[in-house]
Design goal:
Order of helices and strands: EEEHEEHHHEE
Structural class: alpha+beta
CATH topology: endopeptidase fold (from Nostoc punctiforme)
Largest sheet: 3 strands, antiparallel
Number of helices: 4
Strand order of the largest sheet: 1-2-3
CATH architecture: Alpha-Beta Complex
Distance between the termini: 21 Å
Oligomer: single chain
Number of strands: 7
Shape: globular
CATH class: Alpha Beta
Helix content: 25-40%
Radius of gyration: 15 Å
Length: 167
């Protein structure tokens, strides 16, 4: 799961965390594991053709402001290259996200999983208003079945299936 970053004259990009090094990171130009920014089309084609994943999207409405775009890019600059956690760490982090705790003002992540990256980015953009820890989020929180508490006036549209071109 990831987040599309579509800004002015840049190609559509995918902001996410993954275990592999399938594509070059658009921020650094290197192939790396963990948090990365990919060409959206290339990422979707690789996920579909190599890993058998179906692509779905949910459009954020209304359009974000230039200030929100800047906040997203600052988050990319801060988190790009952050490692993906081991399976045990991922499970532990997710479980700890369900426990009450004090929230740090600026989250410093040693590692990050996909939904956590999107949550941190949405929060920086001012889209998340519930003040949950980023590790409270999982991919299901961003799917149609869950209510995502977004800032007033913003919502995610319904799921749209992505047609995958053959390489």
């Amino acid at each position: 799961m990831g987040m599309s970053v579509v800004i002015e004259d840049l190609p559509p990009l995918m902001w996410h965390a993954e275990l592999g090094r399938s594509l070059p990171d658009m921020w650094t130009g290197t192939r790396q594991r963990g948090v990365q920014l990919h060409d959206l089309r290339e990422a979707v084609v690789v996920w579909a053709n190599r890993y058998g994943q179906r692509g779905w999207l949910r459009q954020l409405e209304p359009q974000v402001t230039p200030e929100m775009e800047d906040a997203a890019l600052r988050t990319v600059a801060r988190l790009d290259g952050t490692p993906f956690p081991s399976t045990a760490r991922l499970a532990g982090r997710w479980l700890r996200g369900r426990l009450p705790s004090r929230r740090a003002k600026e989250l410093a992540l040693e590692s990050a999983y996909c939904a956590e990256v999107v949550a941190v980015t949405y929060e920086a953009m001012g889209l998340l208003t519930n003040r949950k820890q980023p590790n409270w989020y999982d991919p299901g929180r961003f799917w149609s079945g869950d209510d995502l508490d977004l800032a007033t006036g913003y919502h995610l549209g319904g799921e749209i299936s992505v047609r995958i071109p053959k390489d």
